[in-house]
Amino acid sequence: MAARAAGGSGGTRGDGAPLLDDLMPWSVQPLRTGRPWVTAPDAASLRARWERLVKAPGDERERLFRVTRSRDPRSRVAALPGQSTGTGPFDREDGPCPEPVRIAHGPFDEQWLIPDHRLIDAARPELWRVADGEQFFVVEHGYLPQDTGPALSVTALLPDGHAPAGRPGRIRPLYRRPGGLEPNLAPGLLTLLRSRHGDSVTPRSVLAWIAAAARHSPTGCVVPLPADTARWSAGVELGQELLRLQLRGARGGERPRLPGGRRPYVRASVPPVPTAPEYDPVGEALLLGTGRIAPVPAGAWEFRVGGVRMLDLWFGRRMAAGMSGAEGAEGAKSAEGAQDADGLEAIQPRVWPQEWTSELLELITVLALLAGLRPRQEELAEGPHLTADELRAAGVLPVPDAARRPASVLDHREEGPDGQFALL
Question: Which of 41, 231, 346, 399 has the most CB atoms around it within 10 Å of its CB?
Answer without folding.
Answer: 399
